[in-house]
Amino acid sequence: MKKIFMAALLLVTMIFTGCGGSDSSSKLSVMLGSNVVSLDSAQATDVNSFELIADCIDGLMQLDAEGKAIPALAESYDVSSDGKTYTFHLRDAKWSNGDPVTADDFVFAWRRHCQSSAEYSYIMGDTVACVKNADAVIKGGDPKTLGVSAPDPKTFVVELDAPVSFFPSLMAFPTFYPINEKFYNSLEEGLYGTSPETFLSNGAFALASYVPGAANIQLKKNDSYWNAEKISIDGFQYQVVSSSDNALTSFKNGTLNVVGISGNQVEHVKENAELAKNLKTFSSGLLNYLSFNQDAKNHHAGALSNVNLRLAISNAIDRESLVNNFVMTGAKATYTAVPIDFAPNAKTGKFFAEDQKQFSDVVSFNVSKAQEFLSKAKAELGKENFDLNLIYSNDGDSSTKIVQAIKSQVEENLPGVKINLQPMPKAEYLSNVTSNSYDIALVDWVPDYNDPMTFLTLWTTSGCEIAEHWSNAEYDKIISDCSTGSLAEDYDARWSALYDAEKILLDNAVIAPLYTSANAVLISPNVEGIEYHVAGISRVFKNVKLK
Amino acid sequence: MNKDDFEFITDRDISVDENFSSQGYWKGVAVHFFRNKFAVTGLVLVSVIILFAVFAPIVSTYSYDQIVSVTDSSGKEFVAKSLEPQFGDGDAQNFFADKTFLFGTDDMGRDLWTRTWHGARVSLIIAFVAIFIDMLIGTSYGLISGYFGGFVDHVLQRFIEIAGSIPTLVIISILAIFMTKGIGLVIASLLITEWIGMSKIARAECLKLKEREYVLASRTLGAGSFHIIFKQILPNTIGPIITQVMFSIPVAIFTEAFLSFVGVGIVLPQCSIGSLIEAGFGNITILPYQILPPITVLAILMLGFNLIGDGFREALAPKLEDM
Amino acid sequence: MKKYIVKRILMSLLTLFIITFVLFVLIRIMPGDPFPVERMSAEMILQKREELGLNKPILEQFANYMSMLASGSFGNGTSLYNGAPIKPILTACLINSFKIGVLSILFGTAVGLAIGIVAALNRGKFLDGLCTLVSILGVCIPSYVFMIFLQYFFAYKIPFFPYFFDPSNFFASSVMPALSLSLFAISTIARFTRNEMLEVLNSDYVKLAEAKGLYGFELIRRHVLRNALIPIVTVIAPLVVSLLTGAMVIEKIYGINGVGKLMVDAIAGQGVDYNYVLALSIVFSALYIGAMLVLDILYGIIDPRIRLTTKEG
């Protein structure tokens, strides 16, 4: 009995001695919306992981504030006249254990990534980077045949199957980052990148505290970084915040300096002049669209192989209402297959999807036209009622609202069409879309690199894993011509051919584009210099200054 | 035998105690129950919620999944989202001033009054269905185990011991992997977790009752086991079982709320108390009125059922001093 | 007594073994492969299945799994945190959860006892009603709702406690989660204590002691509490388990790397990680069974009457 009272007493003492109010040091604290999946650049698949890897590791190139590729570990590079061979000259940089960063670290990492058959190994292959023999290695070939070599420790040579106009900017993407081979091999299998001790950094920051799934990640400045004198903060921390309400309140009381907020909160923040000053909106280059499964074998989807039904649904959705009433974070209604404010033309500087009206005859909000399409579809299919499942990943706050709004709009505007919502965790959702077991799926696709191709290759016959079961020879030909074929070397011809491909896609209503996402962010006034990018690494903290 | 076979011998001077006059068992329970202020309060609270849950969605202007919108003079459509509670007498500034939203609207522009009562209805239905089936399974299991005793009891009890050693969270997790989210998953988890308590009570009662004279008499007269279990013993175990049910229903409502909150429960736009709390949770500091109705309803239901359960338990086994 | 303890321990081990087996089989018969197959060719899938030993008969797989457990390893994850070994992660999470769990049980027991005792001593008066109300509130309000109110008032309105969990400032930052988790314990223990106290207060020996002239705190301490406390030990075991469930949400909101959050990640994160689910389920079951075992034995030691009755059953 005495012991219990003692324990209670002790507890009370601990409570009142332990808390010294909130920690108001000038340390930078940044919110992450979800867990970091992996620090292994071959295994990482999400923006958070890419961001953290890029905080700690430098690649050959990096992106400046405008998104242009500038040298990082590579001091300079040469391109052969046919554009198929890149020779990178590495600067003197060190890993955090003191080892020099060598070209062999790149060779090791690139081979390993191709071999791992991980989600992002495709980026080495012919649809994107076109590294020689990458596709063969991914399919199980000899990794030694991959078109990379290290003639000396400071020279890294890459051979490509075709010229890739955006290759240097690709080099800023974490899949192309180096890994210290000796260090990696000294670790037990599966341990790489699971703690500060099992991870090496050569970039601006090093891990101070990290465990897989950590809710709080501490980074410290890496003093052995080649550009260390440019780094003005001593480190910063990430805090995983799962409730959007927590994000806002923790910003208000100063616990976090950089938080992402939900649509409802944007409206709230705008009403508060003091807070509104801190509000910034960044286009994320992320396209949200509805994917229609056209596989005729699928019981429900059989109906969706009818183009008029797909067009009817696409034209029955009021995208403006979606973004203004339900997303609200500054997202833009999108009527093209490539998102807005993305992929500027290298010559004119105009964004690829600048003209949102160009496909307005097939993608718009027009109830009477939608109903016309529907009556055609009904006549062609001989059916009056369509019962369709809409699957979505319920991890995001906005997707849940979006699908409910779509259900309501489609059911109201298209009599006879019924939509059943099927939320699922991300993994289950992914396995459903990849195995073709869905009718309609709400997809959000993050661009991996700043070129329309990151979207348009999704819908080729062999394309990405979200297969609508749609195949069009003409479309495939344009895409392959543009990536490795005849058009790859002619910038303007390629650009206009991509519009032709987009037209085929939208005429057939393979997808119904919805909107381009934007991130609404609150940033403390004393934090400056966070760089936001639409493709690849979404945030860069290297040049942050605290006032 | 019944009470008609007996009569008071009236010519002797026997008076019936006025305080503890002879009365039926259930009547006695009812008297005790209704004498308990707390229990009656609980009963009133629960009845009110049930009445609203049944009738409010029926008489409401809106349906629970209807996104309310209006068009202004220029033909622009507005969604009535995130409106604070209003009573249809508002100022002219507001397009929706003429509409009544007693609890306001949610961030999708749906009437929270309708959704709250619809959600309460869904939660109550889930709880009642799950607990009713639990009661059937648990009671039969417990009675059979207790009545037959010996080897049967031993096997059945070891099974319960093992099944009861799996934490609820583990059962729910495994179910969440196997089943698709929705009402089915919620009911299944309640079915698997709640029957054990029932069966333990039924068994304990059965062990007590099976040695009673009336059971012995019936057995001597040749009644079959199942006749005895379900016709003779069961009616006498109903009291404690109903008490257990009264305590299980709030647990079921709570579990539903938990499951919906972590995202494996009700699928939107369908709603339950849990999913409404979850929806309001993300906006709790900026739109606090959205989470208040479901939390209040949940708290009232929990309180009500617990009070009823307490009252029932005391009424079944009144202590002398309570009389 | 020794015999009883040994028997009880063996029973618990057997139960745990059976549960492990059932969970193992359940998880193995799940449709699909326990690793991401989206980008794998048929050959690679076959190879991976071979590598993981999924082709073997299920009993053999189970034997292998048990021998792995016996060697102190839980194997590697299948999808979560890209296949890192489970044990270090699980241990770190367990320690965090354990600390907060112990804190909330301590807190819950202390406050619960206090409320229960006050209520019993003031039976039927205003204080009793108040204590009943408090204890009923704990059962009526989910811990996560309580958590959010605490966070709003004591971390935001009055920045008294840190907003998120911070291992380097453990005690200050664990007050709010421990408090929210203990709400349920407080109400359960308070209710139970009140009832037990009342029973003891009405017992003959207390009346006798009273008659002999013992009164006030001394009477309560020497005769009432000691006897009333014994049954309270029994409610603590189920509380340990209810903590796990509550922790699932609290840990997520407050940013604690604990087992609850790990379970959420294992089920709904990047994909169902079968090995994590299995390992966590075994650990949860072991914790529960262990808690019950300890309390049973404790109970037997405290109250000799129990041993006599358990022998019959």
First and last CA, distance of chain C: 15 Å
Strand content of chain C: under 5%
Low-confidence stretches of chain A: 11-25
Average pLDDT number of chain A: 82
Major sheet attributes of chain A:
7 strands, mixed
The biggest beta sheet of chain C reads:
none
Number of strands of chain A: 21
The oligomeric state of the chains shown is heterotrimer
Q: What sort of overall outline of chain C do the alpha carbons produce when their principal axes are compared?
A: flat
Question: How many strand elements of chain C?
Answer: 0
Radius of gyration of chain C: 24 Å
Q: Give the class of chain A from helix and strand content and strand pairing.
A: alpha+beta
**Helical residue percent band of chain A:** 25-40%
By CATH, the superfamily of the domain at 283-518 in chain A comes out as Dipeptide-binding Protein, Domain 3
Q: Could you tell me the mean pLDDT of chain C?
A: 76
Provide the CATH topology of the domain at 283-518 in chain A. Answer: Dipeptide-binding Protein, domain 3
At the first level of CATH, the class of the domain at 283-518 in chain A is: Alpha Beta
The helical percent of chain C reads over 70%
Gross morphology of chain A is globular
Radius of gyration of chain A: 25 Å
Write the layout of secondary structure elements.
The complex is a heterotrimer of chains A (547), B (323) and C (313).
Chain A (H helix, E strand, L loop, with lengths): L1 H17 L9 E5 L14 H10 L4 E3 L5 E3 L2 E6 L5 E6 L12 H13 L18 H5 L9 E5 L2 E5 L7 H4 L10 H5 L19 E5 L6 E6 L13 E6 L3 H9 L5 E3 L2 H9 L1 H4 L2 E14 L14 H9 L3 H9 L4 E2 L33 H15 L4 E8 L3 H17 L3 E8 L1 H9 L5 E6 L7 H4 L16 H11 L7 H17 L3 E13 L3 E2 L2 E2 L6 E2 L4 E2 L1
Parallel strand pairs in A: 1-10, 14-15, 14-16
Antiparallel strand pairs in A: 2-3, 4-5, 5-7, 6-7, 8-9, 9-10, 11-17, 12-16, 12-17, 13-17, 18-21, 19-20
Chain B lengths: L24 H11 L1 H23 L9 E3 L5 E3 L6 E2 L12 E2 L10 H37 L1 H15 L3 H11 L4 H27 L3 H8 L4 H38 L10 H9 L10 H25 L7
Helix pairs in contact in B: 1-10, 2-3, 2-10, 3-4, 3-6, 3-8, 3-9, 3-10, 5-6, 6-8, 7-8, 8-9, 8-10, 9-10
Chain C lengths: L1 H27 L13 H11 L5 H13 L15 H36 L4 H15 L2 H15 L12 H32 L2 H8 L4 H39 L4 H10 L5 H29 L1 H9 L1
Helix pairs in contact in C: 1-11, 4-5, 4-7, 5-7, 6-7, 6-9, 7-9, 9-10, 9-11, 10-11, 11-12
